Amino acid sequence: MARNAKSQHICQQCGFQSPKWLGRCPGCDQWNTLVEETLGREFTPGSGEILPPATPQPIDGVVAEEDRRLSSKIKELDRVLGGGVVHGSVVLIGGDPGIGKSTLLLQALHGLVALERPILYISGEESTLQVKMRSQRLGLISSYLYVAAESALENIFKLIDQVSPAVVAIDSIQTVYSTQLESAPGSVSQVRHCADRLMKDGKRIGRPTFLVGHVTKEGTIAGPRVLEHMVDTVLYFEGDRGHAYRILRATKNRYGSTNEIGVFEMKDSGLEEVSNPSELFLAERPIDTAGSTVTAAMEGTRPILVEVQALASPSSLAVPRRTSMGIDHNRLALLVAVLEKKVGLSLLNQDIFVNAAGGVRIDEPAVDLAIATAVTSSFLDKPVEPQTVLLGEIGLTGEVRAVGRTDVRVKEASKLGFRRCVLPQSNVEQLKAYAELELVGVRSLQDVLGVLFE
Q1: DSSP three-state, residue 206
Q2: 152 pairs with which residues across the strands?
Q3: Is residue 449 helix, strand or coil?
Q4: Are 241 and 358 found together in one domain?
Q5: DSSP one-letter code for 244
Q6: Is 316 a member of any domain?
Q7: Which of 253, 243, 252 lies closest to 274 in space, CA to CA?
Q8: Alpha-carbon torsion, ordered 221, 40, 123, 16, to 10 deg
Q9: In this structure, are residues 360 and 304 in contact, taking their beta carbons and an 8 Å threshold?
C-alpha cells in the first residue's frame, strides 16, 4: 500500500464518502451501501499530470459535430443516437442481464467496419472464443474487428496504442480495474477512475467509445450516478427476456433528442429492426372487447399506435386499487376523478387496472382520451368500434384540449387501416380533411361518450 494511501467508506450508489462506516448514507438515504475502500496516490491534490491549457476560439469557428457522424448501419440505433455516432463521444449502454446489450454492440461495431479501420472490442466477462462464437452465429465476421479479453485498464491502453482503433467498446465497465487502486473491480472508485481515463483518452483524439454497464435491481446503471454524468449518451435496452421484442431509449443525449426510441426483435440471427412498431404493438389486439382503445403517441418524431387496455372490477377493499403499467399512476388517478365528477360514473368501489400493451411507456397528455375511454368502456361493458383512434388531452373540468402533431398521428392511423379518429374540435378545424379517415371533433368527455356509446 502506498505510504500516503488512506481508507474511506464510499457509498456504492451515490459516491458519498465518509471517514467512518455509517449504516445509512446521508447522500442517497440508502441502507448498508457504504463500503471501505483504499484511495491511492492519484487522489491526493497536486499528484495528477498537468495538461496544457485549452486554446479559446470563436464559436463560429468550431467544427459542427453534426457533419461528422458515423453510421452504425442500424437505423433504429442511429435514430436514438440523434443521427449516428459522433466523433469523440462516449456512449453508455445499460440493460438487464441477457437482454441483448452485447449483441447490439457487436452488430453496431460490425456496421462501423465500413470505415475500413480497426475496431477494438474489449470483453471483460467473456473469452475471445465466446465472442467469436457469438459473432459467427450472428454472421458478423470481419478482419477489421479486433477482440481481446482484458480487464486491467493499463493493459487496455497498451492494446489501444497497439491497434490504433477508430472505435473502442468496453464490455463491461464494471469489470475494468486499475492497478493504481486497491479497491475491487466494480467499486465506485474503480468505475469512476476507469471511465474517466477512457473518456479523456477518447475525446483527446476524437475516438468514439462504447461502454456497457450493468444495472441494479431497480433498473438503473450500477455504480455511482457520476458515471452517467460523465458520458455523453446513456441508452437503456428494455424488454422482457421471455418476449422477443426490445426497446432502446435514450435517457441522456448531448447530441440529440431523448424522445426517440428504437424497436428491435430478437431472433436466432441477432437483433432485427422493426420498421413499423405500430403494427407490432397492435398485432394481438382483441376485437370487439370492452376496455380496449387505440391512441397515437409520439416518440420523438415518430408516431406509434398503441393499444390502451383497462379493466374496471368491483372491489372488496376499503380503498380500491388504481394500478397502471406503462402509464403514469398519478395521471390515471386524475382521469378517474374527472370521470367520477364530470361524467357521473360511480368508480369509487371499482378496482381499476390500465396497461399500455406491448411493454411501451406513454407519458404525453395526448393519450388521456384513450385512457378515459378505455376505463369507461370496461365499466359499462361496451366495446369501442375497432377502427377508431382517440386523441386528446383531458382537463380537470372535463374538456378535451388540443394536442400537437395531429397531422402525423392521423396519417399513421390511416396507413394502418383505421377509419375514424376522435380528436379535439380545435384540431379538426386546423387539420386538412382526409378522404379515407373520418374526423370526429369533440369538446368534452360527455361528447365522447355520446359519440362512442350512444
Answers
A1: coil
A2: 177
A3: helix
A4: no
A5: S
A6: yes
A7: 243
A8: 0
A9: yes
Give me the residue label for grid cell 475471445.
128
- 257 and 286, same domain (yes or no): no
Q: What is the pLDDT of residue 36?
A: 81
The reply to whether 179 and 260 lie within a common domain is yes
Alpha helices (runs of H) in 316-443, residue ranges in sequence order: 329-338, 368-380, 406-415, 425-430
Rounded-to-integer distance, Cα 452 and Cα 258, Å: 35
> Position 324: which residue type?
S
**Nearest of 245, 215, 218 to residue 234 by alpha carbon:** 215
Written as nine digits, the cell of 223 is: 455504480
For residues 351 and 320, the answer to whether their CB atoms sit within 8 Å is yes
Q: 388 - beta bridge partners? A: 420
Grid cell, residue 342, equals: 364530470
- Taking a C-beta distance cutoff of 8 angstroms, is the pair 298, 333 a contact? no
Domain region containing 427: 280-452
Q: What is the mean pLDDT of each run of 10 residues along the chain (454 residues)?
A: 64 79 85 76 46 78 68 92 91 88 93 91 92 90 93 94 95 90 81 91 92 73 71 87 79 87 86 85 86 90 90 90 92 94 91 89 91 94 93 94 90 89 88 76 91 84
The pLDDT value recorded for residue 445 is 92
Grid cell, residue 379, equals 365499466
Q: What are phi and psi of 202, to 5 degrees?
A: -70, -40
pTM for the model stands at: 0.74
Phi, psi of 34, deg, nearest 5 = -85, 125
Contacts of 31 (CB under 8 A, 6+ apart): 23, 24, 25
Q: Which alpha helices (H) appear in 302-380, and where do they start and end?
A: 329-338, 368-380
Question: Whose CA is closest to 85, among 208, 264, 197, 263?
Answer: 208
Q: Which of 242, 275, 308 is the last residue of a domain?
A: 275
With vertex at residue 391, the alpha carbon angle to CA 387 and CA 393, rounded to the nearest 5 degrees, is 155
**218 within some domain:** yes
Cell numbers representing residue 392 in the block: 386528446
In terms of phi and psi (left: phi > 0; alpha: psi -120 to 50; beta: otherwise), the region of 100 is: left
Q: How far apart are the first and last CA of the chain?
A: 80
124 and 162 inside one domain: yes
Residues recorded for the chain: 454
Question: What is the three-class DSSP state of 160?
Answer: helix
Q: What is the pLDDT of residue 192?
A: 85
